[in-house]
Amino acid sequence: MNPISDHLQENLRILFVGYNPSIRSGETGHHYANPNNRFYRILHQAGLTPRLYKPQEDGDLLQLGYGFTNIVARPTLTAAEITPEEYREGRVILRNKIETYRPRVVCFVGKGVYEQFSGKRGMAWGVQPEPVVAGVIEYVCPSSSGLVRMKLEDMVEIFRGMLAYSQAERSTT
């Protein structure tokens, strides 16, 4: 199964970073394509999208300033299948993408994604006080996987917190 394409461009409002594609995403070529994944529903309910998008429309979100990538490109059934070597390699590749494209906000969709990227543990949801990449807001949200048992409304509230950061003008200092 092939990795799915990133959706990247310079000056994104938000770059969403997942663990890796699901098997369903690998089959379809679209981000967050598993029918049990709540990603697009969360974005809409949080006010981040004007309507409910479908996984097949993931490329259309570039028009809203939203991009997609993963810390590991290989599709798996669960994140537990990702090897330490894949995370080490992915950490370097992801940092390069962030430094190259300079999104306003990097949203890590899952605390574990941010832990793997930053090497930090025990962070709170939301903005991280000491970003790995200077000048970029690093924001941690829960994974939208159907395997996560957090209530949808709690997840929506955490994602909603990105609105202020994603819509603010970039600092020129």
From TrEMBL:
CDD domains: UDG-F2_TDG_MUG (cd10028). SUPFAM superfamilies: Uracil-DNA glycosylase-like. Residues 7-155 form the Uracil-DNA glycosylase-like domain. One of its GO terms (molecular function) is pyrimidine-specific mismatch base pair DNA N-glycosylase activity. InterPro entries: MUG/TDG (IPR015637), Uracil-DNA_glycosylase-like (IPR005122), Uracil-DNA_glycosylase-like_sf (IPR036895). Signal peptide: none annotated. It comes from the Bacteria. GO terms for biological process: base-excision repair, AP site formation. Keywords: DNA damage, DNA repair, Hydrolase. This is Mismatch-specific DNA-glycosylase.
